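Lecture 7 notes: from sequence to structure.
We start with the chain below.
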Amino acid sequence: MHCCSPRARVCVCSMSVKPVGDAGSAPGGDDAVTEAVVKRFQELRGREQTLLSQISELEAQEVEHRCVRARARASRCTSIPLLQPSLDCLRDARAMRALCRVVVDALRPMDATRKCFHLVGGVLCERTVADVMPVIQSNKEGVRDCA
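Predicted structure tokens for the same chain:
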């Protein structure tokens, strides 16, 4: 039976308990059962949202990993992790935000005067962490504004 039909006790669309029959209310024992069903449904829906969030985070990490490996293979330099994959690999903004977050998290504990490299338009530029950190954070903000 469809959840929103007149005979349904629990409407999962609106998460409300509906009366059954002409009396206008369900028998006393059924109220507790329907409330338990609604509560369990809400718990399952919350769990679903948590799992979907974890799945999307893992997908972003997978895209990032594939791009970094592809870039490392292309440069024939597998010993140095390259943190700026090609934009061809990062079509969705979610993956780009995740990548910016990884870079910021990696650079945050570093000394501000430490040397690092930043890929700008296909050219690897030598900079310091203090120079690169604001650029990465502004890129992250720009991606969030575009999405």
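Points to note: The radius of gyration is 26 Å. The first helix runs from residue 28 to 75.
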